[in-house]
Amino acid sequence: RRLVARLALAADTDFPRSLFVVGADGGHGSAKVAVDLGLSLAFDGHRVTVADFEGGEITRYLQMDGRKRGASLFRRSNPVDSAGITFDRFTLRAGSGPTLVLPRSRPGSLSAEEADTVVADLSADTDALIVHGPPPTRSRGTLSWAGATLGTLLVAAAGQTRVRDLARAVEALEPLGPKLLGAVLLTAAPDPSAQPEEPPTRRTDRPRPRGGGTPVRSRVP
Hints:
By secondary structure, the protein is of the alpha/beta class. It has helices at residues 2-10, 29-43, 57-61, 112-123, 142-148, 163-173; strands at residues 18-23, 48-52, 74-82, 85-92, 99-103, 128-133, 151-157, 180-186, 213-217. It has a 9-stranded mixed beta sheet, with helices on both faces. A hairpin with a 2-residue loop joins strand 3 and strand 4 (85-92). It is globular.
């Protein structure tokens, strides 16, 4: 919740209607931040969509790939097509939460115009769209997603992200200018083996997502 407030402050408005969350390196850290932001906004009554273009990090983080009971918490809803890509949508079976959007096949390097189209289509029926994508040093399409959204958040994990990788990621994102809203440092590495909690069913009983990230600064120059 503190991160949501700081992002709104950095954007000089309410929480950005579209936000790109990207890790300085691969791993579950940026997926955790994207999911927790979506949960926090959804618990406050907002319609939220979380789209994953990182190659399945969010599904692995939520254990939607058939392991244990993670997949049983979600149900598939109607797919959506945009820019020649078919996206599957998933919602929680109980309670309220963000809608997860996953491409059936990992898209290649989309043009800026195609990324704009996808972001506009996925934002049509939602209050906030959170796009999770690959590190900028690993995919040329990262800047397309960052350019199509209203703001970008960079994620680093303490004890995992190397300083040189963080520096390279910041350098790669420099063309965004003020659209690079800030950075988050995960002080505790997320446990990929942890099962997602059962979603609450009543608003008065809804626990807030535990903050796994610490805002580092409001803006990255």
